[in-house]
């Protein structure tokens, strides 16, 4: 440092002595601190933008909004910053809220899986509900939900897995996916108490369906003291009940009333005004209930 000073700076600074030297040193320190603050300010702004991205993503997830809402939120934040704090506009523009970013923020799969396994260590029993349907790419997707209960009857319901079925969708194929899903989550078979499915043969058949294969699996493990129950989805039960119940007398009155209200514009307007005057939960006539 001495050699560098003697070579480059001594002619400029050797003339400063006493109080003038002290003032010059303070000026150089202030200039250096200002230069350093420029870079630290950039880092601070970047950290604030990332923190805001996480907070907003969490709010989007808690309100069950689509991930694409992040772009709309960013757009009106930037517009608001132009009016309220124009000098901080670039900070708001630096907030990353694309659909992929929001998804990454709130779906840390490894962490969620660890939390799910940790919670599962203290439950008393759990049940599984799953349903298979085909998406737009003709891939069969099987959603598996788990409902578990602690000894104090604290219930927790989570989406355990979404299994794509690339080939056939027989009972054996679905059962293999379910078996792999339960073992991956480290769930004990002796605490499985019920299984809810639809009424498709590949699901509820006692021989080749998931229900029958699962009962065979539990029997092969020699699990004693377990009371296993298989049930249909409640919506399928309601559909079956609606075919058996005779509600013609009720439905005739309902249909006649709906047709009377919607037959004329005046009737419809008067009915809407009536709903508004009674502070009804719905302000319009619902065709389907």
Q: What is the CATH topology classification name of the largest domain?
A: Nucleotidyltransferase, domain 5
Distance between the termini: 85 Å
Q: What is the overall shape?
A: flat
What is the average of the pLDDT values? 79
**What spatial order of strands do you see in the largest sheet?**
3-2-1-4-5
The percent range for helix content is 55-70%
How many individual helices? 13
The portion of residues forming beta strands comes to 5-15%
Report the structural category. Answer: alpha/beta
Q: How many domains?
A: 3
By CATH reckoning, the class of the largest domain would read Alpha Beta
Largest sheet: 5 strands, mixed
Radius of gyration: 33 Å
| Uncertain ranges | none
Strand runs, count: 5
Organism: Chelydra serpentina
Protein name: GTF2I repeat domain containing 2
Reconstruct the topology from this structure:
Layout: H1 2-8, H2 10-13, H3 18-62, H4 69-84, H5 89-93, H6 99-106, H7 109-120, E1 125-134, E2 140-149, E3 155-165, H8 171-184, E4 192-197, H9 201-204, H10 210-220, E5 229-232, H11 234-244, H12 248-263, H13 265-277
Parallel strand pairs: 1-4, 4-5
Antiparallel strand pairs: 1-2, 2-3
Helix pairs in contact: 3-6, 12-13
Structure, described:
With 289 residues, the protein is α/β, with parallel strands linked by helices. It has 3 domains: 18-104, no CATH class; 111-239, Nucleotidyltransferase, domain 5, CATH 3.30.420; 246-289, no CATH class. Helix content is 57%, strand content 14%. It contains 13 helices and 5 strands. It has a 5-stranded mixed sheet. The N and C termini lie far apart (85 Å). The mean pLDDT is 79. It comes from Chelydra serpentina (Snapping turtle). This is GTF2I repeat domain containing 2.
